[in-house]
Write a sequence for this structure.
């Protein structure tokens, strides 16, 4: 059978060589214009081609790098090369790119962090591997600076928290000692002023009578303030937490407030309340007592108070609510009212010392929770507090 040979003319061959040259030049231009250092190595890891960026980055001339092992620039692992080779040979459709962070070594021995993107390259001379190398010294420095700044910040926050806790304890101790020690001389003063009032009222001139009245009233108020302050600093002191049924606590509170509830025709609705495993019953009672009596005290004139007490489990915490239809609170005061001795009304409008909600806040925090209020002036308020019952 005759064999058919296709003879190519020399012109055709020349054209093909020219075309290949052009393609090669294009490839080299592309390599040179790449923003990263580009190194092409053969299957044995021998450098075949490098671009200008590689010369700048590593400090070798092209001549010093060509035909040397790529390990002189960075310790590329051979298993990575093998993996990429097999990908290239399988003609895998996935790009088969591996990204690694390695240590580059300059000619002068200086080491620096690099990010290397390795990918297989099928060429006429066989399978090659291209490595795009990026100097990430600045990125690493930035990461280190951020890490150190975070550690510093965390340390500072811890120090400040510890300092604040210590100062808080000192202040509480001071409030306790001061209010405790003030009680005795105040008892004596108010006892004698009352005696003075009882024995001499009407026997001195009217101005003296008025002055004595003022002192009696003021010392009475001071007694209440000091007792409140002492109670406040005693919250959680030396008490043990145990199993508490909130339904029983609220029932006791309502029994204690029976007269004021009847007097003001208050309607109280209570939902199913939880059983808490680690709670302070006296403190919890005081919390409910404060909220319920405030709801009655700050009722809307001419409208019968309606109070709704409820609880629901949210994110593993119990969230209690005490809702009223009272006078409400303006938005700008919603946080301020929880600060000790902060009141929004004069004593002549509503009686009180402004310590009740500070008590409530401390009690909620004692139970690992918090307290807040939502309110609409003229419509009513809902006080919420949470108790983390897992401790
Ligand atoms: P006190 O009741 O002695 O004034 P609190 O600390 O209990 O002190 O309350 C602080 C302030 O918060 C009150 O003076 C009042 O203005 C406001 N407040 C508290 N509870 C309510 C409520 N249920 N409705 C409207 N205002 C309230």
């Amino acid at each position: 059978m005759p064999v058919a040979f296709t003879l190519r003319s020399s012109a055709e061959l020349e054209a093909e060589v020219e075309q290949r040259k052009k393609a090669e030049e294009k490839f080299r231009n592309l390599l040179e214009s790449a923003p990263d250092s580009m190194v092409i190595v053969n299957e044995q890891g021998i450098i075949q081609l490098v671009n200008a960026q590689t010369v700048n980055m590593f400090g070798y001339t092209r001549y010093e790098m060509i035909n040397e092992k790529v390990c002189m620039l960075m310790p590329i692992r051979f298993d990575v090369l093998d993996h990429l080779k097999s990908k290239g040979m399988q003609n895998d459709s996935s790009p088969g790119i591996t990204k690694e962070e390695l240590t580059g070594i300059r000619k002068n021995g200086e080491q620096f962090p690099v990010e290397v993107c390795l990918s297989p390259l099928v060429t006429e001379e066989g399978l090659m591997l291209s490595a795009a190398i990026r100097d990430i010294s600045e990125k690493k420095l930035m990461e280190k600076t951020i890490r150190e700044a975070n550690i510093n910040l965390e340390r500072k926050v811890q120090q400040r928290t510890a300092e604040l806790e210590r100062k808080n304890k000192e202040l509480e101790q001071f409030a306790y000692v001061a209010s405790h020690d003030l009680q005795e001389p105040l008892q004596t003063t108010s006892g004698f002023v009352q005696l003075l009032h009882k024995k001499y009222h009407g026997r001195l001139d009217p101005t003296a009578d008025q002055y004595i009245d003022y002192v009696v009233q003021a010392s009475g108020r001071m007694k209440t303030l000091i007792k409140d302050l002492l109670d406040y600093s005693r919250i959680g002191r030396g008490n043990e937490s145990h199993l508490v049924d909130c339904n029983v606590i609220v029932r006791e509170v309502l029994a204690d407030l029976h007269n004021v509830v009847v007097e003001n025709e208050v309607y109280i609705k209570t939902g199913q309340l939880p059983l808490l495993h680690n709670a302070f019953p006296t403190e919890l009672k005081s919390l409910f007592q404060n909220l319920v009596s405030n709801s009655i005290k700050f009722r809307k004139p001419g409208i019968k108070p309606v109070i709704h007490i409820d609880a629901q489990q949210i994110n593993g915490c119990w969230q209690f609510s005490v809702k009223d239809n009272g006078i409400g609170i303006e938005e700008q005061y919603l946080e301020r009212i929880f600060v000790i001795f902060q009141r929004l009304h004069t004593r002549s409008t509503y009686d009180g010392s402004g310590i009740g909600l500070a008590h409530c806040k401390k009690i909620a925090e004692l139970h690992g929770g918090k307290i807040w209020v939502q309110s609409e002036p003229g419509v009513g308020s809902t006080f919420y507090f949470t108790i983390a019952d897992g401790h």
Observations:
- The pocket of adenosine-5'-diphosphate is lined by residues 290, 294-295, 298, 324, 326-329, 337, 343-345, 352-358, 381 (CB under 6 Å).
- The chain has a mean pLDDT of 87.
- Residues 137-200 form the longest helix (64 residues).
